[in-house]
Design brief:
Elements lengths: L3 H14 L9 H10 L10 H14 L4 H21 L18 E4 L15 E4 L5 E11 L6 E7 L9 E7 L5 E3 L13 E11 L11 H15 L2 H20 L1 E2 L2 E2 L4 H29 L8 H26 L14 H6 L7 H11 L8
Parallel strand pairs: 1-4
Antiparallel strand pairs: 2-3, 3-7, 4-5, 6-7, 8-9
Helix pairs in contact: 1-3, 3-6, 3-7, 4-5, 4-6, 5-8, 6-7, 6-8, 7-8, 8-10
This protein binds flavin-adenine dinucleotide.
The site of flavin-adenine dinucleotide has 20 residues, from strand 1, strand 3 and helix 10.
Amino acid sequence: MFEQDAVVDKYRELASGLPPFPGRDRFRAHWRELAGLGVLNDTGDGWVTEAVARFEGLGLGGLDPGLCYGAASQLFGIQMPLRTLLSADRLALLDGTADGELLLCHASTEEGGGSDPLSCTTTATRLDDGSYRLSGRKAFITAAPVADRGLVFARTGEGRSPFALSAFLVDLDAPGVSRGAPEDKSALPGVPMGSLTFDGVTVPEDRLVLREGAGLTVMAATTACERALLLSYALGPMRRLLEDTVAWSADRRQFDRPMGASHQVAGRVADMAVRVHRCRELVYGMARRFDEGTAVRHLAHDAAMVKISVTEDHLRIAETAGMLAGVRAFIRDRAGFADLASALAGSVYAGPNDLLRVSVARGLGLPVGNH
Ligand SMILES: Cc1cc2nc3c(=O)[nH]c(=O)nc-3n(C[C@H](O)[C@H](O)[C@H](O)COP(=O)(O)OP(=O)(O)OC[C@H]3O[C@@H](n4cnc5c(N)ncnc54)[C@H](O)[C@@H]3O)c2cc1C
């Protein structure tokens, strides 16, 4: 067992010792340095809770939020579910992830449809020798410009059948794979995002995850883990916003008194603290349930609620901090800068919150369709 706060403190300290993050061109070097700190380890008793504490500490120590997001996304949204979905003889496909030598991406979204996985137009056609021929284009994929292997969702069946999709682990240096230029994105710019084009790529049979037609089952597992735990990356930035806003409100003088002497300002800061507390409880609560052995399918409903709640709290925290920082909120290299775009992105990635609300309502028994 481990002391959660001790892990947070240790990784806060480690983050401040890491070399500065100068940009995406050295992304793989930063990724390896991060992995060297044990950040991508996914084994051992209590590892999920410990991993959440590591991310919280790194974020508190000021690690670039995009890099932290990328690592949390791979660990919780890809490695963790694949460890339960891959058969024992295929687990070697994950070798190298923990030490940063193998970087994975999750390729589901296409230009024509993100919210609706069954709008997928990428196809995988089974050949006589059992292999598949993959053709199509995925867009807006985190880490696509730098990843080695992609968990790619493709159509193996017709129409809107729940068995129309399959998932494949595809080597991104295979003949026929090409990558688009990194997107110039405003949210989480520290991790690159881009497209992947598959032009008749041969995918061996043993790269099919689970079985043909199980794509939505695989996606249900990856997205539930991600919704439950990815926001661990944001706990540190949220706490930093709170700490900075407390210090600023105590020091900044307006109307012959500290700004924080205003009941309205103090109340807003207190609301930030309530939200930070709620987010930590929710994310660590999910982590503990995974560590206790609860199966991911039993956590999907709660994971959707946690994702909605934490991303919306994150956005409110960034908004309040930004408002109280005044003009500094809008100047990138000033203390008080409020990264609203990264916080807002949380309502879109890992399932748009509006669509997750629909699935929560369905789980409650309302007769609402899933879109
Ligand atoms: C930072 C970031 C990282 C990402 N990383 C990845 C990645 O690694 N891999 C990947 O595959 N994708 C990734 N995505 C893409 C993400 O999965 C999609 O953006 C998401 O699924 C929504 O798809 P869309 O952007 O095409 O929006 P659309 O599907 O066009 O929807 C736009 C908005 O309309 C609303 N909406 C649409 N339909 C409905 C409906 N029926 N009911 C209610 N509201 C609705 C929602 O608010 C939604 O946000 C990432 C996105 C972001 C922002």
